Amino acid sequence: MTGKRILIVEDERIVAEDLKRLLIKMGYGVTDIAASGEEALRSVKSQKPDLVLMDIRIQGPQDGIEVAEHLYAEYNIPVSYLTAFADAPTLDRAKATMPYGYILKPFEPRSLQAVLELAIHRHMMESVVSEMDGWHARVLHSLPGALMATDRLNRIIFINKAAETLTGWTPDALFGKPLSDYLLEEKGKPIPPAGSEGTGSFKTKTNGSAPITYTRTILPGEDNEPNGELIIIKLF
C-alpha cells in the first residue's frame, strides 16, 4: 500500500533519518519525525498520518506505549511499535494497547514492510466494518416502522425512533431486558413462527398496553445459528 503516510516517533536522530530513507524507498510518505510524545501528538493533529511507527523509549514524561494509547483513543490512528525492548513487562503493556505490529530492532527491511502493510490493511478493514455497522444502525433508526432487535437470549438490544415513540421507552431503559416482559402474547394463542404475523400487546412506559401486530425475523450469526430476532411492530 505505497503512498500511505507514516509518522516516525524515534528519539535517536540518526536511526530516525535512516528509517525515513528506508520508508521512502519502500514507497511510503513520511509526515514527520518526533522525538517525544508531545511532539508526536502535535504532529498527528496537524499532519494526520495513516500510521505511527513508535519507539517505546522516547523523550519526555510519557513512553511510547502511553502515547500510543492516547493516539488510538483520540485519533483512531494505528500504531506499530519498533523497539529494542522485548522483556515480559514491556510486552504485556504493549499488548494491552492492541498494537498493529511489534517489530524488534535490529529488523529486516522486508519484515518491516510486511508488518506495515498488514497494519494498514487491518486498520482499513476495521474502519470499513465500523462504518458499515454505523450505516446499518442509521438505516434502522430512520425507517418509519417500529423496530426492535433481540439477542439469542431474547433480550432487547435495539429499538429505533419509531419504537420509542410507540412505546414511550428509551433504548437505555429497555436494553438487556427480556422481550417477554414487554411483548405480551394474545391469551390462548401460540407464539407465531418466525416470518408470520402475530397479535398481542406491548407494555408501554405509562403502565398501559398498546394492542399490536408484529412480525419476527430470525437474525443469523456468523455460525449461521440464530443470533437474535428483528421484530416489526404495528399498532393493531
Q: What overall form do the CA principal axes indicate? A: elongated
The chain-level structural class is alpha/beta
Helical residue percent band:
25-40%
In N-to-C order, the SSE pattern is EHEHEHEHEHEEHHEEEE
Distance between the termini: 56 Å
Number of strands: 11
Spatial arrangement of strands, main beta sheet: 7-6-11-10-9-8
Mean pLDDT, all residues: 84
- Give the oligomer, counting copies of the same chain as homo and different chains as hetero: single chain
Strand content: 25-35%
Low-confidence residue ranges: none
Characterize the biggest β-sheet. Answer: 6 strands, antiparallel
- Gyration radius, rounded: 26 Å
The number of helical runs is: 7
Walk me through this protein's architecture:
α2 packs parallel to α3. This protein has 236 residues and is an alpha/beta fold. The protein has helices at residues 13-26, 37-47, 64-75, 88-96, 109-142, 161-167, 171-174, and strands spanning 5-9, 29-34, 51-54, 79-83, 102-104, 146-150, 156-159, 183-185, 197-203, 209-220, 226-235. A six-stranded antiparallel β-sheet has the order 7-6-11-10-9-8. It has a five-stranded parallel β-sheet with strand order 2-1-3-4-5, with helices on both faces. The protein has seven helices and eleven strands. Helices cover 39% and strands 27% of the residues.
